[in-house]
Amino acid sequence: MNGRIERMGVIKADEAVRVSRRRPWWWAALAAFLMAALPQTAWAASAPPAIDAGDTAWILASSALVLLMTPGLAFFYGGLVRKKNVITTMFQVYSVILIVSVQWVLFGYSLAFGPDVGHIVGSLKWALWNGVGAAPDADYAGTIPATVFGIFQMMFAIITPALIVGGLAERVKFSSFLVFITLWAIFIYDPLAHWVWGVGGWLRNLGVLDFAGGTVVHISSGVAGLVAAIYLGRRAEYGGPTIRAHNVPFVLLGTALLWFGWFGFNAGSALAANGLAANAFLTTNTATAAAALGWMLVERLRTGHVTLVGACAGAVTGLVAVTPAAGFVTPGASIIIGFVSGVLCFFSSTFMKQKLGYDDALDAFGGHGIGGTWGALATGLFATTLVNSAGANGLFYGNPHQLLLQLIGVVSTWAFSGIGTWILIKVVDAVMGFRVTREEELMGLDLVLHNENAYPEMPSVEEVQRVIAQVPRRDAGGRGWERVSPVGAGLSSEPSDPAAPASKG
Length: 505
What we know:
- Keywords: Ammonia transport, Cell membrane, Membrane, Signal, Transmembrane, Transmembrane helix, Transport.
- The structure is a single chain.
- This protein has helices at 2-22, 25-37, 40-46, 53-80, 86-113, 146-163, 165-168, 174-197, 202-206, 214-232, 248-267, 275-303, 308-322, 331-349, 351-356, 364-382, 400-432, 438-443, 445-450, 461-469, and strands at 116-117, 121-122.
- It is mainly α.
- It has a single domain, classed as Orthogonal Bundle (Ammonium transporter fold), CATH 1.10.3430.
- Strands 1-2 form a two-stranded antiparallel ribbon.
């Protein structure tokens, strides 16, 4: 039977060849003409989006660059804290990679970029990466696989909560931090990402411009860091001589890794290897350099010297400020954005913080909250469709309405992150406590929480306990070391006692 079918197939094929040979030459020419005359748009409409290998390779590389920013942040923060807290600080940053990498695949990506629900959040249709595959999603990026877009966005979801560590450094329980960060990623970052970037999100529909995360990443994390700093209160040794950066080379290394990774952060947000990515690459670099110069200039005028830590901090503020603007502004505008950011963030991280008395330990708010706010508003000033035809013109290009839209985006992000963060901290604190005890803080969290030391010369637990036992408590006359106020009870009016023994950390 099978042999008969095969023979019949061969006979029919031979007949088809003979028929085709009998057809005149003009038949083939007519067919070719008709094919060429048909509307090509009809064919294109039915064809799936084509994957571009170059774009895909660039976004995968950019994803790796953005992931590198988080270890860079660990070195940056780790160098700024005291040596007795370097492990716990770097571990907090590192742990965010572990938590968000899983959360994003489980349901985070779906909440942020899934089908819209009420213009507020995505549905759970794409939970467990269901329906996110090799085919492009034309709503977000038509030339790369949807999985690649999801991977790229995962790296943004990782770095954002890691930035909050700067506001609560050196005084929180590790277990409480893990719970808080998990909740923050779910209830703050994912909905906010949908507002600004998700199809159907209300800020996206409104026309707010945020190329790579000025609102979603930096304002949200900076405001969260400020709320955490105020809620927790000052560190026990706040204002004392021992609170200073313990490893400046770490700070420089972290800055270099952040700067390098930020090219993927901003240029990768073009979602293609094209001229827009090149513009974002260039504006990122110029704004960063200008911000460092601006910080150094003001630091020299205010203090009489410039510091490497200051130059590094200034560079980071430039990276922050240009993030929302990188794909919408010219290189010349990026210099202005960066320089102003360096000046603003210098004063917010020094004068304003001292005046208001909050202990934003590593300037999460001073750098990211203020820098992100300035960058988002500056986008409303300097944006031009000459750079990005898919964007909008800003105030300086004849469109004052865009500045108003940017202000709406800034205010709504401030409010959502601030109120939401306060609620989450209250819940975590009520259930499991958030802040370590005064004795644990003085001993150093590396030993207390992890039983590790970053450096071999660091004292053991027993040695530190002997020192703590000799530290006087506050008596009825108000002398001696302060007691750490209960969490949320407000700020102490006496940060430290100069007569107290110097900490070894």
